[in-house]
Amino acid sequence: MMEAMEGSPAVLCRNLHKTYPGGVEAVRGLDLEIPRGECFGLLGPNGAGKTTTIEILEGLSAPTAGEVRILGLPWRGHEMDLRQRMGISLQETRLSEKLTVRETINLFAAFYARPRPVTEVLEEMALTEKVNAWVGKLSGGQRQRLAVATALVGNPELLFLDEPTTGLDPQSRHQLWDVIRRFQSAGGTVLLTTHYMEEAERLCDRVAIVDHGRIIALGSPGELIESFVGPHVVEFALNDAARALNWAQSLPGVQAARQADGIVQMNVREPHRAIPALIAALEREGLTLAYLSTRRASLEDVFVHLTGRHLREA
Amino acid sequence: MATEPRIEPLAPAAPAPSRLRYRRWASYTALLTVRMKELLREPEVIFWAFAFPLLLAIGLGIAFRQAPVEHVPVAVAAGPGSAHVAAALGGGRFQVSVLPAAQALDRFRLGAFDLVIVPANGGVTYRFDLARPESLLARSLADDALQAAAGRRNPLPAASRPFSEPGARYIDFLIPGLLGMNLMNSGMWLGFALVEMRQRKLLKRLVATPMRRADFLLALGSSRLLLMLLEVFLLLACGVWLFRMRVMGSWGAILILGVIGAIGFSAMGLLASARAEKIESASGIINLVTMPMWVFSGVFFSYERFPHAVLPLIRALPLTALNDALRAVILQGAPLASQGWQMLIVALWGGLAFLLALKWFRWT
Fold this sequence. Notes:
The complex is a heterodimer of chains A (about 325) and B (about 375).
Chain A: E1 11-19, E2 25-34, E3 39-43, H1 50-57, E4 65-70, H2 79-85, E5 86-89, H3 101-110, H4 118-124, H5 140-152, E6 158-162, H6 170-185, E7 189-194, H7 197-203, E8 206-211, E9 214-219, H8 221-228, E10 232-238, E11 254-260, E12 263-268, H9 271-285, E13 289-296, H10 299-307
Chain B: H1 24-40, H2 43-63, E1 72-77, H3 82-89, E2 94-99, H4 101-109, E3 115-120, E4 123-127, H5 133-149, H6 170-199, H7 202-207, H8 213-243, H9 251-272, H10 279-296, H11 311-315, H12 318-332, H13 340-360
Parallel strand pairs in B: 1-2, 1-3
Antiparallel strand pairs in B: 3-4
Helix pairs in contact in B: 1-8, 2-6, 2-8, 6-8, 6-9, 6-10, 6-12, 8-9, 9-12, 9-13, 12-13
């Protein structure tokens, strides 16, 4: 590699703001630094500013304020160079329906200085059988894979994927994860947005949780879970759902507890201490369990903890 | 609440790596190929660009073809002198029946005859219907024939020469008009296609690649020109083969007008699509622009029929100018140089539209 600014981060932005003409502040002071070779996930509910942020970073939308550097270069004056080195998959692009898969990929390949072999990309995206099919005849998952293929065919150093797996069946999703890992292991940098916490946990080295146009948490999935909610979640329900359970908060080994729809959810660091204590407390109060379950905490729990909302909710 | 950007100013020496050269020709040909394939796979395009004008030409050409000369059915009431009258009318355009007067009038009322002639006292009485033009015509023709047979001499010598040469028929007027209309429709239709691409976020996806926007527009324009060649050829071939139309001007001149028309109206289509987010709003704008020209610009009938006060306005419309130039070249064999004004009008509309489109066009 002989690119200038070799040592600079793949993506860098400082104090990013975007206010739309109607006065809606989609992004309100966002800082981000993604080193080369990292797979970074931007998480957040719909309307949190993820797509606005990624489109600013992609040079498709100008920020109201703030600075952006991609591969060490600002967009102004380096647009054509940066576009050569980036691959982009937008949310919900509907490619021309009357073109075949091969024609579509050939078109995108023609724009790049050093495209990858078209057949290789189609094979990687499991579209070989569909090369001669019209895009209009593809399933939703196949179209999504084609959209990612158009991002890969330019042989990019940096890949921006806006909700790449939305609407994919589990098999296609795993296929796409493999593609992203392979891209990353060859030295590429990935920035993706997703709704799926499992996807972010499996795929991303680091994630940022965005809400109301700001980053509210940043780190590796493990770090975030560890620092915000502890590694385990214990959930239980009682036969008598109406009873207040303020005491659950103060059980040994419990970091936090909350009650919703009759189910009590506790963030627990040490289940081996918390569960016996819970059983003992219930006996003392004369209560019986209707349901008890433990699971590993997820990013979803981090988000609920931070915002009181679920990620999939608008 | 904006804080000072914390990014250090970059060292100026960060040149783009030279090996990442944009392949302009490859991009352009790929865009053009794809565009042509898309167009030819779209049944609507085939219909509106090719079949529709041909069907219009054939339909209207047949409907308004020159009717063969028809016979004039005339009844002569039987009686003294009827044989003389029938003989005087015989041999020409008249189809003469000699019948009893009552029966002749009955059938006249049913429309079987245009005129009933009742001979009496060495002269004739014409029974005809003032409200029926063909009845008036029959009376006048019959009177001329009978007066001439009776020895009338015309004080003013007058000769008649019927005129129905190719070049002066309705179909000859129509085909250049349809050609102009087609150039307008296909060009404006480009705007439609662009709004669809914007709605699908395809424009945004394309500008996220290294593709140059100019190459995209150039490919669109080129595909429009290729299609234009087909459109012009098909319509004129239809006129020449089906209606024995004579193309008086040079094919080169017609082609140059085709190029100016296609590019000019494509630029207007581009402008119509500059901002619209939805197909519906684009279609409203495009109809607003094209509908008045369908009516005023002399596609189907001469715009000279409109009041003289508005003629300068009508002549300033791009389709009027294009139609006038096409008719002058195709029907009268006028040299291209004589159509400078008309070409300038189309070019001005197109040029202005293109400049505004560049300013307003939204890619993302």
